[in-house]
Design goal:
Elements: E1 2-6, H1 17-25, E2 28-31, E3 49-52, H2 58-70, E4 75-79, H3 90-99, E5 103-106, H4 111-119, E6 132-136, H5 149-153, E7 158-162, H6 168-177, E8 185-190, E9 198-203, H7 207-213, E10 220-224, E11 233-234, E12 262-263, E13 278-279
Parallel strand pairs: 1-4, 1-5, 2-3, 2-4, 6-7
Antiparallel strand pairs: 7-10, 8-9, 8-10, 9-13, 11-12
Helix pairs in contact: 2-3, 6-7
The structure holds S-adenosyl-L-homocysteine (SAH).
Length: 299
């Protein structure tokens, strides 16, 4: 059987418990060597056959799976982050289907989560953005016309851009063409969760210069939107005393300011006004009784 496993964003302790167990039990591992850190291979058995897919074609990957399956072996196909994002997994699954080889998937922590952790960031701040757009600049892989960055930028939602660190100048132009202000906050997170992780806070207008100054051209995510400085947002309804959920009754707010009112100009924990680059590492109108589904993580 073949297991598609998400390796996580880099740190070897950010693979899931299930993913680690599958790696420990595997007879053959095919890992995406361009991004999966070698440290993760420390979990495999001594006699496990290990292949770096950076040197292989789809056909060769499938041949290895087929031979392993014939010998009754367990195969782990290890992809960076979560396999469902830019993982080229579907084409492998279709080939396995054609050969009658069974497979399953084990999710991983995407680099977009690793990058948020690096910045202590919440992508979905009430009154700022409740939508995250994941996309990329077109490279050798085309992006459908209707998904051009400028068209997506017009939503003014939080954007997380993969595979685009080498194209920051064009990216910034596209963002501005789509209606982003030059001073829209942005961040570049390089090697999120790796020992040499770097976070650079900037704006859309200074994105290209920031990437250049810091020599970042790959293995980085670019995050765009007003959630980055998290300086102005509305507190959640879900944890507001005046909010009822199926687990907790609302309390009387007395004559405190309107429940759920914006907490203006707040500097969040873990956030400092940082120089261009630094090495480191539910909203609502207040007391109305709303169903818990409107809340957030605990719904
Ligand atoms: N499936 C992966 C994405 C693979 S596409 C995931 O869920 O994260 C490869 C792109 O992901 C890179 O070009 C980069 O934009 C991003 N990426 C992968 N690992 C990263 C990391 N540790 N830090 C920052 N970006 C990363």
């Amino acid at each position: 059987m073949v297991h598609f496993v998400g390796a996580g964003p880099g740190a070897e302790d950010l693979i899931t418990v299930r993913g680690k167990r599958l790696l420990e039990e595997a007879d053959t591992v095919i890992y995406a060597g361009s991004l999966v850190r070698e440290e993760l291979l420390g979990y495999v058995k001594e006699d496990c056959a290990v292949y770096n897919s950076a040197y292989l074609t789809l056909e060769q990957v499938v041949e290895i799976c087929e031979a392993a399956e014939k010998s009754g072996q367990e195969v782990v196909r290890l992809h960076t982050g979560d396999p469902s994002l830019y993982g080229a997994v579907r084409e492998q699954m279709d080939r396995l289907d054609a050969l009658g080889i069974p497979y399953d998937s084990c999710p991983g922590v995407s680099s977009m989560c690793g990058a948020a952790a690096a910045l202590n960031l919440e992508y979905t701040l009430p009154d700022v953005s409740q939508t995250v757009i994941l996309s990329r600049m077109a490279g050798r892989t085309a992006v459908p016309e209707r998904e051009q960055i400028a068209a997506l930028a017009a939503h003014r939602a939080t954007m997380v851009l993969f595979l685009s660190a080498g194209m920051t100048e064009e990216l910034a132009k596209e963002l501005i063409r789509g209606g982003c202000r030059e001073d829209t906050p942005a961040a570049i997170v390089y090697h999120a969760t790796w020992p040499d992780e770097r976070t650079c806070l900037c704006t859309v207008g200074t994105l290209a210069e920031t990437a250049k100054i810091n020599g970042i051209t790959r293995t980085a995510l670019i995050i765009v939107g007003d959630v980055v400085p998290h300086s102005r947002y509305r507190r959640s309804d879900l944890y507001h005393p005046a909010f009822s959920t199926m687990f907790r009754d609302a309390q009387d707010c007395g004559d405190r300011p309107a429940c759920g009112e914006a907490q203006a100009r707040r500097e969040g924990p873990g956030h400092r006004d940082r120089p261009a680059c630094e090495e480191d590492s539910a909203s609502g109108e207040g007391p109305a009784r709303r169903p818990a589904e409107d809340g957030g993580e605990d719904e």
